[in-house]
């Protein structure tokens, strides 16, 4: 199986939406731009956000098996994907890529 690198490329925070719709929370996302993790054998890296993992698990598992070319040529690198977490108030965009 191939290792897969997960890199947080961008984190956005929608303060206007948070002010209108979100109840105050004590613990928000701690992922920072530039952070990266390695998935071995298609498993969730230790310490990685479980909610973000839910959005990308199938892509990471496929890349770890050597699969790629999602959506018929969506990505310039066919063994990669750009996936965002499901937090609508502070989404993080992750670049995932198979590494040799």
Describe the 3D structure:
The chain has 100 residues and is α+β, with helices and mostly antiparallel strands. The protein has one domain (3-99). 22% of the residues lie in helices and 26% in strands. Strands 2-1-4-3 form a four-stranded antiparallel sheet, covered by helices on one side. Strand 3 (80-84) and strand 4 form a beta hairpin. The protein is elongated. The termini are close together. The model has no long low-confidence stretch (mean pLDDT 95).
Reconstruct the topology from this structure.
Blueprint: E1 3-11, H1 15-21, E2 36-39, H2 50-64, E3 80-84, E4 92-99
Antiparallel strand pairs: 1-2, 1-4, 3-4
Query: Strand share of the residues?
Result: 25-35%
Order of strands, widest sheet: 2-1-4-3
Number of domains: 1
Largest sheet: 4 strands, antiparallel
Total strand segments: 4
How many individual helices? 2
Principal-axes geometry comes out as elongated
> What ranges have pLDDT less than 50 throughout 5 or more consecutive residues?
none
- Give the helix proportion (percent range): 10-25%
C-alpha end-to-end distance: 10 Å
Structural class: alpha+beta
- The gyration radius over C-alpha positions equals 14 Å
Order of helices and strands: EHEHEE
């Amino acid at each position: 199986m191939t290792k897969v690198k997960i890199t947080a490329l961008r984190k956005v925070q929608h303060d206007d939406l948070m002010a209108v719709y979100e109840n105050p929370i004590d613990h928000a996302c701690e992922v920072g731009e530039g952070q990266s993790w390695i998935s071995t054998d298609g498993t969730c890296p230790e310490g990685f956000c479980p909610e973000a993992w839910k959005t990308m698990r199938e892509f990471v598992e496929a890349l770890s098996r050597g699969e790629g070319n999602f959506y018929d040529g969506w990505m310039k690198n066919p063994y990669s994907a750009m996936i965002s977490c499901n937090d609508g108030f502070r989404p993080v965009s992750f670049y995932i890529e198979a590494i040799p």
